[in-house]
Amino acid sequence: MMDEEFHDRRHPHRWDDEVYREHTVPLFITICTRQRRPYFVPEVADITVAVLLERAGDFGIRIDAYCIMPDHVHFVCWVESTESEFLQFIRRFKGDVSRLAHEAGDTEFAWERSYWDYSMRKEEHLPTRIRYTMENPVRKGYCAEWSDWPWSWVAEEYR
Predict the structure, then answer these.
(1) Going from the N-terminus, what domains does the chain have, and what CATH number goes with each?
(2) Phi, psi at residue 74, to the nearest 5°?
(3) pLDDT tens sequence across 111-126
(4) What percent of the chain has pLDDT over 90?
(5) For residue 159, what are the CA distances in angstroms to 9, 25, 131, 133?
(6) Residue 26, exposed/middle/buried by CB under 10 A (0-12, 13-18, 19+)?
(7) For residues 112 and 105, is the Cβ–Cβ distance under 8 A?
(8) Complete edge-to-edge strand list for the sheet that includes strand 152-154
(9) Do 151 and 45 contact (CB within 8 A), yes or no?
(10) Which of 130, 22, 34 is nearest to 76 (CA)?
(11) What are phi and psi of 53, to 5 degrees?
(12) pLDDT in tens, 37-80
């Protein structure tokens, strides 16, 4: 199973803070909803995309690809500066999405406590992670082509 190739499902792996500041290293991030509940209905998925992009800009994080699935979020990103606070970015992103989802009427929305990350030490891993991210809704049967999924995006250079 391709997903097992990317994650040890027993527990999230947490990198030391300095790894996140190595802005020459792309990161593959997966954040799940609590108990993998499908909270990302269209309104909450729209909120999630907007918050992801806004907070990324606030914290100096470049997003190269993202996909919002019903029960989890994948994105590929780069920390653009040694001054960027990646862990604070994740906290703010999750907190803001939770607050806005609750304000939109989804008072049950909740994230898992942590998240999964994978630091791509080799540049050749990047296309594989981006392809995995973008093809997620196709693998799950939500659409025929990744470009049909309204809550995904990839930078032009990776298309």
Answers:
(1) 2-158 (3.30.70.1290)
(2) -115, 140
(3) 999 999 888 877 778 9
(4) 71
(5) 29, 20, 9, 12
(6) buried
(7) no
(8) 116-119, 26-32, 72-79, 61-68, 152-154
(9) yes
(10) 130
(11) -70, -40
(12) 999 999 999 999 999 999 999 999 999 999 999 999 999 999 98
* pLDDT-based confidence at residue 13 (cuts at 50, 70, 90): low
Q: Of 2-16, 53-67, 83-97, 145-159, where does mean pLDDT reach its minimum?
A: 2-16
Q: Which of 96, 108, 86, 111 is nearest to 31 (CA)?
A: 111
**96 contact partners, CB below 8 Å, separation of at least 6:** 51, 55
Q: Which two tokens stand for residue 22?
A: 């190595």
SS (H, E, C) the chain: CHHHHHCCCCCCCCCCHHHHCCCCCEEEEEEEEHHHCCCCCHHHHHHHHHHHHHHHHHHCEEEEEEEECCCEEEEEEEECCCCCCHHHHHHHHHHHHHHHHHHCCCCCCCECCCCEEEECCCCCHHHHHHHHHHHHHHHCCCCCCHHHCCCEEECHHHC
Phi, psi of 8 (to 5 degrees): -90, 110
